[in-house]
Amino acid sequence: MIAARCGLDLPSAQAAESAALEETSLNLYVAVRTDGRVVATLPRTEMGQGITTAVAMLVAEELDTGLDAVDVSTADADPRWLIQLTGLSSTMRYLAGPLRAAAAEARARLVTAAAHRWRVLALTLTTAQGEVRAPDGRRLGYGELAEDAARVLLPEVSPLPKPPAEYTVVGQPTGRVDARAIVTGEARYTLDLDIPGAVPTVVARPPTLRGTVQSFNASTARAMPGVVGVVQLPSGVAVAARTFAQAFAARDALQVTWAPGPASHLSDADIRVRLRDAIGPRPLPPLLTTRVVEGRFDFPYLAHAPMETQSCVARVTGDVAEVWSGVQDPKFARSQVATALGWALTPQRVTVHPIRAGGGFGRRFFTEAAVEAALISRALGQPVKLMWSRNDDMRHGHYRPASHHRILASLGPGGSILGWHHRAAIPTVDFPHGFGDLLTSLLGQVLPNVTSAVFFALTQHVPYQFGWVAQELAEVPLPIPTASFRSVFTSQVGVANEVFVDQLARELQRDPVELRRSRLTSRRLKAVLDRVVQEGAWGRALPPGVAQGVAVLEEWDSAIAHLVEVDVTGGTPRVLRVVIAADVGLPINPKGIEAQLQGAALDAMSTTLSAGLHIDAGAVREGSFADYRWLRMKHAPASIQVHLVRSDDRVGGVGELGYPSAAAALTNAIARATGAMPTRFPILDEGA
Question: Which intervals hold domain Aldehyde oxidase/xanthine dehydrogenase a/b hammerhead (predicted)?
Fold first, then answer.
């Protein structure tokens, strides 16, 4: 069987060379070319998180071949893959086992094929450096054996993966296999693709969220140099031209009358009132309660703000469509494009090629760019290359919702903790993509509030013995588009919990580390907490205005602790040092894990200190990084240490793990340094 190549369109010379080298598919995940190169299929999207490198390492490990001999190809939207959703920190958790099994089976087939050719016992053969080797010195490369291996019905050696104790590639700190391509510009993102005839396209969008076109006059725009066409969309008015500069100029020349969006009656103050009102009255405390400690917290809307804005290349011809985009769920993207084109019952008419993306964080679950590009392509009768501007991306996205939280701790005689009650008022989080499968996607579209509530119940827990514990979600219907954000509900609920643990420690006059140790129910959390306390020298004497904070989190089959050291003597908090300890089970690539956790810590610092959105009469105020105050390089601490604590060989999630406890540890450090606990974020909100 010769496998078709997936992923990016290749330059013509490279495509010709590739076509000359047949790929023999040994299973759904692994193919071997006649030149001996191994092609691993990745049914997820590389968005900078390093999964391409991790996949290559797993395959190279099990096949006993060099890492530089493995190519990773992204799979198109395909029903053979049950789930293609890139999110929930699930990629390596779900794929590591099947990838190891597939590569191990491929190795067993290659060995068996060599044994048949040499007429020797398969058990006498070994593999190394992309070859099968016999005791007498004979060698056969994998490429020479690929076709015979594909015909093997039953391998004659064990097809089981290696035990982790034998790993020589997995677990070693490894630079990204695509690093050179990224820094030299060879790596190709959506707007880098050269699809013949694709015309640059931009869209004029309303001033308010989900506003619509009442009327427009495009006569001036149509007459401008290079303009190919103007197309009205449900979301605005598209302009296609020979260059992006011409398209932007013509877009700005459009005369559009806009109808306001459904949130035009809402501003920040209105939203805060709605959220606070949803909290409701206090519940009755448990029996024997002597006093109740209360904490209140407010979190803002957040934009995902990936470095690459939304973009898509689309080609609609007759009754078929083809789209290229950095989507987090290609099967959902296919169904959305098919529905928009009127092909809801025949989504197979749409081919979706997931492209390397410049960040996602939950934003790329939503497929507006793909839908718009397909509609524009059909209207113009030619391919289009659609780009969202940074302003489009910030002011017309899906956002981490704002929220208000009330946490109550019921204290009894002798400082005992009898109960913990957390009620979170949060606008419904949109999950139209579900959890990557058809059933939950349908549920997410038909009953979004139910899907949101179920996800909350499945993911939120308190890892402490705090008596009777309850966490409740009060969903507040607001017409502002939402999306999951790094760690979803935990980015608010988990942060509030860990900050309130410190408040509780102050009320009980106990050390916050000691209180956590005494109440934690997870040995993994105790281990990572002990590690950051040790590495960060918790409790040592610090200058006035300098303090440390800690926080922990267990989620996505992983556990993590943060210690943050902050200096407030200059008036504005300055992070001096971050110490992280994480138990992610089997660390496939420790260097990649370190990069992920460092990036998440900087995200948490940004949204805790300065970055947040404001809503003014249904419009998002912030439009770029000039006013969406993400931290700059100068704000990064001098040291972000990452220590891995391994308790077992499970593969845990990493991508979302590092955000909540970093935000909470920073907040706790500021509270200890200033004597006042922050309760509203971002702390340095200049636009409130």
Answer: 184-262
Calculate mean pLDDT across residues 427-447.
94
Evaluate if residue 23 carries a pLDDT over 90: no
> Residue 391: how many CB atoms within 10 A of its CB?
14
Helix (H) or strand (E) holding 59: helix 51-63
DSSP code per residue over 131-185: EEE-TTS-EEEHHHHHHHHHT-SS-SS--SPPPGGG-SSTTS----TTHHHHHHT
Peptide bond into 155 cis (omega under 30): no
Stated as kind and residue range, the H or E segment containing 470 is strand 468-476
Task: Show Cβ contacts of residue 521 under 8 Å, excluding neighbours closer than 6 positions.
Answer: 463, 464, 465
Q: Residue 138's beta-bridge partner residues?
A: none
**570-593 pLDDT per residue, tens:** 999 999 999 999 999 999 999 999
Measuring CA to CA, which residue among 243, 238, 242 is closest to residue 254?
238
Alpha helices per DSSP H over 546-589: none
Structure tokens at 531: 């590690």
Minimal CA–CA distance to 601: which of 650, 636, 568? 636
**Strands, E, within 305-462: which ranges?**
311-317, 320-325, 350-354, 384-387, 403-411, 417-427
Average confidence score pLDDT of the chain: 95
Alpha-carbon distance of 687 to 680, in angstroms, equals 13
Tally DSSP H helices, then E strands, for the chain. Answer: 18, 26
> Greatest CA span in the chain, whole angstroms?
82
The answer to whether the predicted template modeling score (pTM) of the entire model surpasses 0.90 is yes
Which pLDDT score, from 0 to 100, does residue 19 have? 40
For residues 613 and 622, the answer to whether their CB atoms sit within 8 Å is yes
Is 336 in contact with 371 (CB distance < 8 Å)? yes
Is the confidence at residue 21, as pLDDT, over 80?
A: no
For residues 577 and 637, the answer to whether their CB atoms sit within 8 Å is: yes
User: Partners of 126 in the beta sheet?
Assistant: 133
Helices of type H across 434-511: 438-446, 448-459, 493-508
How do residues 607-639 score in pLDDT, each as one tens digit?
999 999 999 999 999 999 999 999 999 999 999
Pair 132, 145: CB distance under 8 Å: yes
Pairing type for strands 639-644 and 574-583 reads parallel
Taking 3-state DSSP, the helix, strand and coil percentages for the chain, each rounded to the nearest 5, stand at: 35, 25, 40
Cα(15)–Cα(101) distance, integer angstroms: 30
pLDDT in tens, 330-364: 999 999 999 999 999 999 999 999 999 999 999 99
Please state, in angstroms and rounded to a whole number, the distance separating the CA atoms of residues 203 and 224.
Answer: 16
Give the DSSP letter string of 643-679: EE---SS-B---TTTTSHHHHHHHHHHHHHHHSS---
